[in-house]
Design goal:
Shape of chain A: globular
Helix content of chain A: 55-70%
Largest interface: A-B, 147 and 133 residues
Low-confidence stretches of chain A: 10-23
Number of strands of chain B: 0
Number of domains of chain B: 2
CATH architecture of the largest domain in chain A: Orthogonal Bundle
Radius of gyration of chain A: 30 Å
Mean pLDDT of chain B: 86
Structural class of chain A: alpha+beta
Radius of gyration of chain B: 24 Å
Structural class of chain B: mainly alpha
CATH class of the largest domain in chain B: Mainly Alpha
Helix content of chain B: 55-70%
Oligomer: heterodimer
Distance between the termini of chain A: 54 Å
Strand order of the largest sheet of chain A: 2-1-3-13-6-14
Number of strands of chain A: 14
Number of helices of chain A: 33
Number of helices of chain B: 14
Largest sheet of chain A: 6 strands, mixed
């Protein structure tokens, strides 16, 4: 009771606080920042407020997960703040949406020295002679390695060029028993690009890729895999912290965040690891990451907003920001501050930052990057020759970048949209009218409409209309250029659909989705039923406990579930490989082997989901009247007969519901590959909905994604129709 | 069910099976709980232990220091409770109409609803967002809650349950002069207790764990729900697992409590004595 009161007063207090927000008379700025910066920026804002009396900076934090979606919808919904933090690779996209304001007008009268920024940090802000943002902080990649193990192999420090690094890796592997030298992911385009740039390769300059340089890079990397210096399969799901501790992979590539991770999580390792610049090929090149600050076009207070951006990007605040957040400054002058200049771990980052490169400034970059991953993976796995991989990738990139010149008049577009809108509406009306006009059983109970009203009204507005809208969208080229500007959207007929049927990733997704449903649904439903019967068994005591236990996987948040399953599947020390080793079998790369990854995800999905259906079955079992069992028991029926003649027939309705729903759910398979594998390796866990999500919400090809949804819809419709037919037939037999 | 005597051997095998399956389902939960009490050095090791070797409350301390837990908890409760109450009511009403009332086009309308369930929800998100924008409901509780208050899945589930309830019960009530609302409220809902309890749990958990929708709709940080606020603690590259797991525990516990409360309604034999034709 006391606790209840406390909660009540806490709630009341919150309500009162919210009611009494004082109206602020001076100027106000709304600023969004992402992740940890979302909290820390408050401190920078306070310094700014102190220097500019009368100004109030309202900061809001956004989680990294979902930040991209949040920013896009904010632009579409006219809810964007004045300033936001923005990932460097998102810049072109928001420029394409015409959402961000060029800053050159403010720069003329500003003391900010733009030549002070690292060239790679400048590149993501500077486009066609205009500044669209300011660098806020940077990060780049370096080598992390075990100094003690390197010394054992006869090296005092990491070699500085490609060839000697390769020799070092061989010596390192030879000097220890077991394990690898180097952890090298095959599904990370950033890693590939660094090597490609080091090799003198260029991206989207004259041609999409440089012939020869691409092949050379693949050749260099493939040697590490072919000679077992780096694991071909295990590199993607290595837990780097544990891997460097065990010495199984004593060298890996990572960013500045890894310094504090190693220090806090592996204190025993202190003094036995160091960072080094990446080995140089023809030249030095690392990846320039980090974040920029942008000013939104919709901002009503641009002059003041610029003042705050200028303040954050200047060398003084950048150096101070490092001490607050640990973020590396984008300003070279800020690096002269002792906290940065004298930190030995940061020296390698400073070296790389001068030459680190940002990916090309095209709005379609995310899509291109995904294709780079696919091409590199296929080449290092030996599926195709490096040359064929390059040619295929170049063709893909050219296709992605090809812009449609099609123009359609507004009247034509509105007319066609109306026609396409009325088409399904008329079909629905016809469908409802056709057949017997009278209600089944003859009587019409008008009160029924009252019962239907709330649900049907809400479904009409928030389900029917959006479905028709997305159906119309599936016949347009709606993409990021049109997200905020309808005039750029044109009808393309069935082009999206025909394109999909020739898209190998989509076809792979379709195949995986079917495999997933064909295996997952029977296993999951049978397991649910068995568990529900067990939970209902008379002998079982403490039923509440067991019910909760089976339901726990359903309630547990996906983040926690993913962390634990990742650990279970870990190739180095996971529980599954431990179990295999007890029976003398070799360990497996559960999530990165192209044959095992999908079954591994099915197992996880069944584990996570079976409790859901179990509970539905348990609820249904309660409704079977005891009298039925009593009467059959009097006839001397066995438990088995009870099950076949009473329980199963009485569960028919529920079982049908469960099977239909589970099939629909499994055909929309998404969460597990999204969070565990991202669709890899080699698209072996790519599902239709995951691909749809990537195309729709990562690349903003909304028309293409909608078309995918309708192909999947057709598939689900066919499945469900078959299930209904089977049920009708079976009903006749009872 | 008639009392059946089971041999001790049967009981032993049965309980052994139940215990093994419980270990499998509970393991990750226990793991999450124990990780939330571990210090960073203990979380990633080659040989992790089930129980922390060194218990620490740092995860929880950091959690409560980093975000205003009461505020976000309160937001989440408002969101989840209003969605649950409205959706259970609306969906049960519609299900009653589909299961037990007569009106022209009943089967057709129901088939139409089922068809809409087959369209993946992801494609309708942006159109729903634009509709809410045109209604001026962005950044409001109404905009947050309304789209979730009717669900075909739920209507389907209750309807399947209600069709099993014998017509005779309703006829008797009608003869006694009950209005349709009285029948729905005083007879159907109590008869459907197990399935209503199940649906309550599903709606509550769905809304409670929902992430993307509240993030997109709510503009101000003080309106964030618990999962959104907790996701904000995740770095782009850095993850403080102790803190994250403490957050996961705080999110999961209310859901477990709701389920514990709801499962009490799985009472045997409410519809007992039902005449099955």
């Amino acid at each position: 009771m006391i606790l209840k009161n406390k909660v009540f007063y806490a709630a009341l207090g919150i309500l009162l606080c919210q009611g009494s927000v004082t109206v602020f008379a001076g100027e106000q700025l709304n600023v969004w920042a992402i992740g940890a910066e979302g909290k820390l920026i408050r401190q920078a804002a306070e310094i700014f407020e102190a220097r500019n009396p009368g100004v109030k900076v309202v900061t809001q934090g956004i989680p990294w997960t979902g930040a991209h979606e949040k920013l896009v919808t904010a632009v579409v919904g006219n809810m964007a703040p004045d300033i936001s933090q923005m990932g460097t690779t998102w810049m072109p996209e928001f420029r394409a949406m015409n959402a961000i304001e060029p800053l050159d007008g403010f720069m003329g009268s500003s003391a900010l020295d733009t030549a002070d920024f690292f060239p790679g940090a400048r590149d993501s802000n500077y486009y066609q002679d205009k500044w669209y943002g300011l660098p806020w902080y940077v990060d780049t990649r370096v080598m992390y390695y075990r100094t003690d193990l390197a010394a054992k192999a006869g090296y005092k420090k990491l070699p500085a060029d490609w060839e000697s690094f390769y020799k070092f890796s061989k010596a390192l592997k030879a000097s220890k028993n077991g394990g690898y030298a180097f952890s090298l992911p095959t599904n990370d385009w950033q890693i590939f690009l660094m090597f490609y740039w080091q090799n003198g390769g260029e991206l989207l300059k004259d041609s999409p890729l440089t012939a020869g340089k691409f092949e050379g890079t693949i050749g260099y990397l493939k040697r590490f895999f072919d000679e077992d210096l780096a694991p071909l399969e295990g590199g993607n799901d290595t837990d780097q912290l544990t891997a460097i501790e065990s010495g199984n992979y004593p060298v890996f590539i990572s960013g500045p965040w890894m310094i504090s991770q190693l220090q806090t999580n592996k204190p025993l390792l202190n003094g036995r690891w160091a960072t080094a610049p990446l080995p140089a090929g023809e030249k030095r090149a690392s990846f320039m990451g980090g974040c920029n600050l942008v000013l939104f076009r919709s901002s009503p207070n641009k002059a003041l907003a610029w003042k705050f951006m200028e303040f954050l990007a200047g060398p003084e605040m950048q150096a101070r920001w490092y001490t607050l957040s640990g973020d590396l400054p984008a300003s070279r002058k800020a690096w002269l501050a002792p906290a940065l200049a004298k930190n030995p771990q940061l020296a390698s980052f400073r070296v790389e930052l001068d030459t680190a490169k940002a990916p090309p400034q095209v709005a379609e970059w995310e899509n291109i990057a995904g294709n780079i991953n696919d091409a590199v993976e296929e080449a290092v796995f030996g599926r195709v020759t490096p040359q064929a991989a390059r040619e295929k990738l170049s063709a893909r990139i050219e296709k992605i970048l090809a812009k449609s010149e099609r123009q359609q008049s507004v009247a034509f577009k509105i007319g066609l949209a109306l026609f396409l809108f009325l088409l399904p509406v008329c079909a629905v009306l016809l469908h409802l009218r056709k057949g017997p006009r009278a209600a089944p059983g003859g009587k019409f109970q008008p009160i029924a409409l009252l019962f239907l009203l709330p649900a049907v009204l809400i479904l009409a507005v928030f389900l029917f209309i959006p479905i028709i809208a997305s159906f119309i969208a599936s016949m347009t080229n709606w993409n990021m250029y049109g997200v905020n500007d309808w005039s750029k959207v044109v009808f393309v007929g069935l082009e999206n659909y025909s394109g999909l049927l020739r898209d190998p990733v989509f076809l792979a997704g379709l195949r995986n989705t079917l495999v997933f449903a064909f295996i997952g649904v029977p296993v999951s439903v049978t397991l649910s039923l068995a568990m529900a019967l067990a939970l209902n068994a008379q002998v079982l005591r403490a039923k509440a406990f067991f019910r909760v236990a089976y339901f726990i996987p359903v309630i547990t948040t996906m983040v926690a579930v993913a962390m634990i399953w990742r650990w279970l599947y870990n190739p180095e020390f996971g529980l599954f490989n431990l179990a295999l080793s007890y029976v003398g079998l070799p360990g497996q790369n559960w999530l990165s082997n192209q044959w095992l990854a999908l079954p591994s995800l099915i197992l996880m999905a069944v584990w996570k989901g079976f409790g859901y259906n179990t509970i539905i079955f348990v609820a249904a079992l309660q409704s079977i009247p005891d009298s039925l069992y009593e009467s059959i028991a009097l006839d001397g029926a066995s438990t088995r007969q009870e099950f076949w003649y009473i329980t199963l027939p009485m569960l028919r309705n529920t079982a049908f519901f469960v099977i239909v729903m589970t099939t629909i759910g499994y055909l929309q398979f998404f969460a597990e590959p999204y969070i565990m594998t991202g669709g890899g390796p080699l698209n072996s866990t790519m599902s239709v909905v995951l691909y749809m999500y990537q195309q729709g919400f990562k690349f903003y090809n909304l028309g293409y994604a909608s078309a995918m949804a309708y192909i999947l819809f057709g598939l689900i419709f066919a499945f469900t129709a078959v299930q209904f037919r089977v049920q009708k037939k079976m009903e006749g037999n009872f | 069910m008639a009392a059946v005597r089971h041999s001790p051997a049967y009981k032993f095998v049965f309980y052994a099976f139940m215990l093994v399956s419980v270990v499998i389902t509970l393991f990750p939960f226990v793991w999450m709980l124990s990780t939330s009490f571990k210090s960073p050095g203990e979380i990633f090791t080659k040989t992790p232990t089930i129980l922390p070797q060194l218990w620490t409350l740092d995860g929880y301390r950091n959690l409560f220091a980093a975000v205003n837990m009461w505020l976000h908890f309160f937001n989440s409760v408002i969101y989840a409770v209003s969605i649950t109450v409205l959706s259970v009511l609306f969906n049960a009403m519609a299900a009653y109409a589909f299961a037990k009332l007569k009106f022209p086009g009943r089967e057709k309308l129901f088939a139409l609803l089922l068809v809409t369930m087959m369209v993946p929800g992801q494609v309708t998100m942006l159109p729903v967002f634009l509709i809410l924008k045109s209604m001026g409901l962005l950044n409001s509780y109404a905009g947050l809650v309304l789209p979730g208050t009717a669900a075909v899945f739920a209507i389907f589930m209750i309807r399947q349950f209600m069709t099993e309830i014998p017509e005779e019960i309703l006829e008797a009530a009608r003869i006694d002069g009950f209005s349709e609302f009285a029948i729905f409220w005083r007879i159907m809902l109590p008869l459907c207790r197990p399935i209503i309890a199940t649906l309550t749990v599903f709606s509550f958990i769905g809304a409670w764990n929902d992430f993307l929708w509240p993030l997109i709709i709510m503009l101000r940080e003080d309106k964030y729900t618990l999962p959104v606020a907790l996701a904000g603690l995740n770095g782009q590259y850095n993850t403080d697992w102790g803190l994250l797991m403490a957050g996961a525990v705080v999110v999961v516990l209310p859901a477990v409590i709701i389920f514990l409360m709801a499962q009490k309604h799985y009472i045997k034999g409410i519809a007992a004595g039902a005449v099955k034709g």
